[in-house]
Specification:
alpha/beta, 6-stranded mixed sheet, 9 helices, 14 strands, globular, binds zinc ion, binds fe (iii) ion
């Protein structure tokens, strides 16, 4: 049986390690040193590297790791990401034989064009597209693409554990509460998040059920949220209109 452990890196990144007592696979190693320290402390061999998108805080440690461990790097190829050894596309599969895991791959553009998600039963690695109570910035592509990508993730089973690449939950919840002040699930998540952070513990993984109950970007048809945005001048109350207004407000919040 394998475990999934957060390796904190950089300012607020998590490098997720899938591991047993012998080997590990890491997701989005933006830094090599904390991964090498993790492997050495537990006597693990690196088996492979998974990559959700090409931002440096997700790929910055790959070259150094591969000087020590000449392992495959699975992700979507892009001219600005020289590290990928195995190109993955929509509908692709990745078998991690060491752990008996089979990931399905979907393309989830809207943060960056090359962003993919790794999906196994009850497990989602979603990089910078879906965060605890929030979503990634729309750097490339359209708000419609980001919205569509998030909708696809929201359709995963409620029990799916959501492994995001950043610890942004507390700040995102302040925004979620501004959107829906009366949402009890958000209020409860604020309290739970404060406790975890006070103990210096990750607020992740969350679950698809929790995100659907508390993440404003998955709640664009909720009346209270729409009313809040209307009070701020929203006129286009289609789901995409609400989503776009929400993403713009969050950029300035
Ligand atoms: Zn990113
Ligand atoms: Fe990032």
């Amino acid at each position: 049986m394998f475990k999934i452990t957060a390796i904190p890196a950089l300012k607020d990144n998590y490098i997720w390690a899938i591991h047993d007592d012998h080997r590990a696979v890491v997701v989005d190693p933006g830094e090599a040193a904390p991964v090498l320290a993790f492997l050495n402390a537990r006597g693990l061999q690196l088996d492979s590297i998974l990559c959700t998108h090409r931002h440096n805080d997700h790929i910055g440690g790959i070259a150094k790791l591969r000087e020590v461990y000449n392992v495959p790097v699975y992700g979507r190829r892009h001219p600005d990401n020289p590290h990928i050894t195995h190109d993955l596309r929509e509908g692709g599969q990745l078998k991690l034989d060491a752990f008996g895991i089979v990931f399905g791959v979907i393309e989830i553009p809207g943060h960056l064009d090359d962003h993919i998600a790794f999906i196994a039963p009850d497990t989602l690695f979603c990089g910078d597209v879906l965060f605890g109570a929030g979503c990634g910035r729309n750097f490339e592509g359209t708000p419609a693409q980001l919205h569509h990508s998030l909708q696809r993730l929201a359709q995963l089973p409620d029990s799916t554990r959501v492994y995001c690449a950043h610890e942004y939950t507390a700040a995102n919840l302040r925004f979620a509460l501004a959107c829906e002040p009366d949402n009890v699930a958000i209020q409860q998540r604020v309290a739970a998040t404060q406790q975890l952070r006070a103990a210096n513990l990750p607020t992740l993984p969350s679950s698809i059920a929790l995100e659907k109950a508390t993440n404003p970007f998955l709640r664009c048809s909720q009346p209270e949220l729409i009313r809040t945005l209307q009070q701020r001048g929203l006129t286009d109350t289609t789901e995409l209109g609400v989503f776009t207004a929400l993403r713009e407000w969050r950029n300035r919040f």
